[in-house]
Design brief:
The chain is mainly beta. It contains one helix and nine strands. An eight-stranded antiparallel beta barrel has the order 1-2-3-4-5-7-8-9. It is elongated, with a radius of gyration of 25 Å.
Length: about 200
């Protein structure tokens, strides 16, 4: 190996070393969280022809990762409430059926710092939801009433909110999210909760 080649390789290695020191790989930080709130959607109630606006309580369990100060990803498990699924009538009377809806979301996140303790953030991704029909009096639906099959699907989901650092590991999250179509209607959720960062 000639002297000029050795010199060129030495300069290249020194340059890469200095570049790595000036621009290190962004730190990765994991977090978990729990939020609760209110969710609004529309559903057709038994005996009505047009949809009615409904509001239900909702809870979400969150797990996420942040790459540096801006980008990240999040997964959430959502309890979305119970919604009307119609009625059946037989010799024993009329039974009202409901659907318990759950969702699993996968989103990418972006954050804009606001000072030392606050940040605005946005999310975009997909939610996969499922529901099973049931009644209060007769348990899960059976083949005789035609409601034995649950419903499921996937939908676009976006969210925006405010993340406030309370102490070293704990933060407060305020959020508004929209799922484009669940059970044939859009769902809008307002929630608040706590985040723990490892």
């Amino acid at each position: 190996m000639s002297r000029s080649i050795r010199t060129s390789l030495g300069i290249l290695l020194c340059g890469l070393s200095l570049g790595a020191q000036e621009a290190p790989w962004p730190p990765t930080r994991l977090y978990v969280g729990l939020t609760a709130g209110s969710q609004r959607t529309e559903a057709t109630l038994p005996g009505q022809a047009s949809p009615t606006s409904l509001e239900r309580g909702t809870v979400a369990i969150l797990c996420g990762v942040r790459f540096g100060p801006t980008w990240g990803g999040e997964m959430g498990f959502h309890f979305l409430g119970s919604y009307p699924a119609g009625t059946t009538t037989d010799a024993f009377g009329t039974i009202d059926w409901e659907r318990d809806v759950h969702g699993l979301s996968f989103t990418g996140t972006a954050q804009l710092p606001l000072g030392r303790r606050g940040a605005l953030y946005g999310q975009a991704g997909l939610m996969f939801w499922s529901s099973e029909p049931r009644s209060h009096g007769s348990g899960w639906a059976t083949y005789t009433d035609g409601r034995d099959h649950g419903r499921s699907g996937g939908t676009l989901m976006v969210a925006a909110g405010l993340d406030i650092t309370l102490v070293q590991h704990w933060g407060l999250r305020l959020e508004v999210s929209v799922a484009d179509r669940i059970l044939d209607a859009r769902m809008t959720r307002s929630s608040a909760g706590f985040i723990y960062r490892f």
